[in-house]
Design goal:
single chain; alpha+beta; Molybdopterin biosynthesis moea protein, domain 2; Hypothetical protein af1432; 3 domains; two-stranded antiparallel ribbon; 13 helices; elongated
C-alpha cells in the first residue's frame, strides 16, 4: 500500500527501492523501517513510499528514553547494578578504615556489570530505569563507571582501554571515603570551610589508588585526581588548564557532571535530560573539553527521537529526527506539519515530556 511518510510506522516493510527527487538511492526494497530510516526519508524529502500491507493494528513503538531498552535486559542487569552499588559501598568503607583497596575486590564488585553494558548500548534508558534516590554517592560512582565506558568507546579507545577507563570512572570518587559523613551527606549548602574539605577528596582518592594497586593502569589515579579540573583553570585541586589535564580525566569530568545532574538526591530533584545536555554544551566552551563533550552529546541526543517536545510557543510535537551538529534543533512533527528547527529558528524547545 502507498502511504505518506508521516504515516509510516516502525516495522513497515518497503515494497520497492526508494529514491529522492534527484534520483539518489535512499532505502532498499525489503527494508524493515526503524525510526532512523523514517527520519532519513524526511531528510531526503521523500513524500510517499510503498509498504507491505500491515497485518496488525498495533501502535508504532518509538525509540524513546523509557522504552528502547531490550525487554529481556532489565531483569538480568538490575541485580548486577545493585551488586555494583553495594560493592562500591563496601570498597568505600574499606578505604575509609584502612585506606587500601584490593584489585580483586574491585573486579568482583564491578566486573559482572561490565558484561551487561557491553551488550546494551542504550545507556540513557539504563540509567533512567535503574536510578533511584537511594545511596547517591555509591550509585553515582557506578553510573560514572558505566558512562565512562561508553564515552571512551565513542571517542575511539580500544575495548581494553575503555574497560580501564570505566574502572577509573568507578573509582573516581573513592577519596570521598575520607570526607566526614556530616559534610558528605549534608542536605544544606556547605560552608566555605566544608567545601574546601570536600575538594580534598581528589587528593585522597589519588593517594588511595596509588597505595592500593601495583602495576595499575595509569588512568585510575589520574582520573581520581583531575576529574574536577577545568579547561579554563577554574577547577581543583591544582587549577590545571587545557592540555595539562589528562584526556581520561576529561572523560570522567563530563560524565561525572551528567550523572550528578540527572540523579535524584534528597535535597535536589533530577533535571530534565534535555536541559542537562544543553548545560554540558554551554560548559564545553570554557570549562569542559569541547571534543569530549560534543562526542558525548552527539551520541546521547538521538535518544530523544519519539519524545514529545513542548515549544516556547506552547505547541507540542514529536521529535522525529535529530541533527548531527545542531544537537538541540531537531525535526519536529506537529499534526501533519513538520518543523525543522535548524531552518525555522524562531522556534525553541522549552521542555521534553516524559
Amino acid at each position: 500500500m502507498r502511504v505518506h511518510i508521516s504515516d509510516l510506522k516502525k516495522g513497515d516493510i518497503l515494497l520497492k527501492d526508494t529514491f529522492n527527487g534527484y534520483g539518489l538511492h535512499v532505502l532498499s526494497k525489503g527494508t524493515i523501517l526503524e525510526q532512523k530510516d523514517i527520519a532519513k526519508l524526511f531528510q531526503h524529502q521523500v513524500d510517499y513510499v510503498d509498504v507491505e500491507n500491515r497485518t496488525t493494528t498495533e501502535q508504532p513503538v518509538h525509540r524513546t528514553l523509557e522504552t528502547s531498552v531490550h525487554p529481556k535486559w532489565l531483569p538480568n542487569v538490575r541485580p548486577d547494578y545493585e551488586n555494583a552499588v553495594k560493592g562500591f559501598e563496601e570498597l568505600f568503607l574499606k578505604a575509609n578504615t584502612g585506606g587500601i583497596l584490593k584489585q580483586d575486590e574491585v573486579a568482583a564488585a564491578f566486573q559482572p556489570l561490565l558484561k551487561n553494558f557491553q551488550m546494551e548500548r542504550d545507556v540513557v534508558s539504563m540509567l533512567l530505569l535503574l536510578n533511584t534516590a537511594d545511596d547517591y554517592t555509591y550509585q553515582h560512582s557506578v553510573q560514572v563507571g558505566m558512562l565512562s565506558y561508553y564515552l571512551a568507546s565513542w571517542l575511539g579507545y580500544s575495548e581494553l582501554e575503555a574497560l580501564e577507563i570505566s574502572k577509573a570512572g568507578y573509582l573516581h570518587d573513592i577519596g570521598k571515603s575520607k570526607i566526614p559523613d556530616s559534610i558528605l551527606n549534608k542536605p544544606a549548602s556547605l560552608t566555605d570551610e566544608e567545601f574546601e574539605e570536600v575538594k580534598k577528596h581528589t587528593l585522597y582518592g589519588h593517594d588511595i589508588i596509588l597505595n592500593s594497586f601495583e602495576n595499575q593502569s595509569p588512568y585510575l589515579a589520574i582520573s581520581a585526581l583531575q576529574h574536577h579540573e577545568r579547561n579554563d583553570g577554574s577547577g581543583y585541586p591544582h587549577g590545571l588548564t587545557g592540555e595539562q589535564i589528562h584526556p581520561v580525566a576529561k572523560i570522567t569530568a563530563v560524565v561525572d557532571i551528567y550523572s550528578a545532574m540527572i540523579s535524584e538526591r534528597v535535597y535536589k530533584k533530577k533535571r530534565d535530560l534535555f536541559y542537562v545536555l544543553k548545560e554540558l554544551h554551554k560548559m564545553s566552551f570554557n570549562e569542559l573539553d569541547a571534543h569530549t563533550t560534543h562526542t558525548f552529546i552527539k551520541h546521547m541526543i538521538p535518544n530523544f527521537i519519539g519524545k514529545k517536545a513542548v515549544l516556547e510557543s506552547g505547541e507540542v510535537g514529536t521529535i522525529v529526527m535529530t541533527h548531527p551538529t545542531e544537537f538541540f534543533r531537531p525535526l519536529i512533527q506537529i499534526g501533519d506539519r513538520f518543523i525543522d528547527l535548524t531552518v525555522d529558528r524562531q522556534y525553541e524547545i522549552k521542555e521534553i515530556i516524559f
